[in-house]
Design brief:
Blueprint: E1 19-22, E2 25-30, E3 39-42, E4 58-62, E5 83-89, E6 110-115, E7 118-122, H1 127-135, E8 142-147, E9 170-175, H2 184-191, E10 207-212, E11 218-222, E12 225-232, E13 238-245, E14 248-253, H3 265-271, E15 276-280, H4 299-309, E16 313-317, H5 325-338, E17 343-344, E18 349-352
Parallel strand pairs: 1-18, 7-8, 8-9, 9-10, 14-15, 15-16, 16-17
Antiparallel strand pairs: 2-3, 2-4, 5-6, 5-18, 6-7, 11-12, 12-13, 13-14
Helix pairs in contact: 3-4
């Protein structure tokens, strides 16, 4: 296990971009102005909160036990296909934009994964609208959107998904928690119906299909991409995902509540040996006793799961909207001390296994 952290070089005139981290020993890379070589700085053991606002730095890494060449300007990683996850929304329950959440972000759940030339989207919270701004610059878009479940904070961005209104685009929508009582298309139609929303789902002119499955199914949406699924412990059901591509695995586990003792064996099996595990860590240990049964977990329970399942990089996710940036910094420092290499998710962050 290695710390994922950076200390920025003291130089200015860098272009803004995403904070990009790999699982392993991190190296910060700054892209300067035109013609200026990138500036790198490596440092192990720094708490994530120290770099929470460094949106102009890109992190690459050499993984534990194997050397991977650092990416430099204009060149990609050798002998590996593109595989990463980007965080567009990291909050749970309700969006909480404002000055007290500017470093970690206030949008609700939405992740983007790239598997080679394929784009996968997970959940459709308010972060989907921000991703949508990016997608409008890349039309025509062909993507798959997987929902963990359909509680409002995970689907409230869908009616405002403007690229779904464009007939040049193609979206495949997936859900595994509704069958057999319901289906995804009918649920989204109800979301966009009178008197809740002014226009119906039929106004979306993209080529859209709706695919229901059951937890435990193994999905293969495209050649070379294998997605294992499992039932999570959440009211009205939810589904966890393990995306396997190019010999690596990223797991997305939200919303779920840990058992009173030990770890959930279904989830432990799903995340075993994963390169990255994004986990619902909404509450602190002090908060959790008054929230038992709500269907959410703690960062310490996620850490136990990561240790038992042999997860390489554990990502704290689904932040409580009541936790401001200062509290998130304190959580980040504590998790980094307890399990070096643990990352606290923030909007705009990109992780590469």
């Amino acid at each position: 296990m290695c710390a994922v952290c950076i200390t920025p070089p003291k130089q200015a005139n860098c272009r803004s971009g995403d904070l990009r981290i790999t699982a392993g020993r991190a190296v910060a890379e700054r892209t300067g102005t035109a013609g200026e070589p990138p500036v790198r700085a490596g440092h192990a053991g720094t708490a994530w909160g120290v770099v929470a606002s460094l949106s102009s730095y890109t992190c690459r890494a050499r993984g534990v036990g194997q050397e991977r060449p650092l990416e430099t300007a204009g060149k990609g990683l050798a002998k590996t296909q593109e595989f990463w996850v980007k965080f567009w929304g990291v909050r749970g329950s309700i969006a909480c934009p404002g000055p007290s959440t500017v470093r970690y972000g206030g949008n609700t759940s939405c992740l983007e994964m790239r598997c080679g030339d394929r784009r996968l989207i997970f959940d459709a919270g308010t972060g989907l609208r921000v991703l949508d701004d990016e997608l409008r610059t890349r039309v025509p878009v062909d993507a798959d959107l997987f929902l963990t479940h359909t509680h409002f904070d995970h689907i409230c961005g869908f009616p405002f998904f403007s690229t779904a209104f464009d007939p040049r685009n193609t979206y495949r929508m997936w859900a595994g928690h509704l069958h057999p009582e319901r289906n995804l298309r009918d649920l989204l139609c109800a979301l966009m119906s009178d008197p809740v929303f002014p226009v119906p789902v039929e106004i979306m002119k993209a080529d859209m299909s709706f695919r229901d499955f059951v937890p435990g199914d193994v999905l293969e949406p495209h050649p070379g991409i294998r997605i294992r699924t499992a039932l999570l412990n959440h009211p009205q059901r939810a589904v966890g995902y393990r995306v396997e591509f190019d010999g690596r695995a990223i797991c997305y586990i939200t919303d779920t509540e840990h058992p009173a003792e030990g770890v959930d064996p279904r989830i432990a099996e799903l995340v075993a040996g994963a390169d990255i595990m994004v986990y619902d860590a909404m509450f602190t240990d002090e908060e959790y006793p008054s929230r038992v049964g709500w269907g959410h977990s703690t960062w310490s329970a996620g850490m136990r799961l990561a240790e038992e399942a042999g997860v390489k990089t554990y990502v704290v996710f689904h932040h409580d909207p009541a936790h401001d940036d200062d509290q998130m910094d304190r959580i980040a420092a504590e998790v980094a001390e307890r399990r070096p290499g643990t990352v606290v998710a923030r909007e705009g962050m990109v992780l590469e296994p």
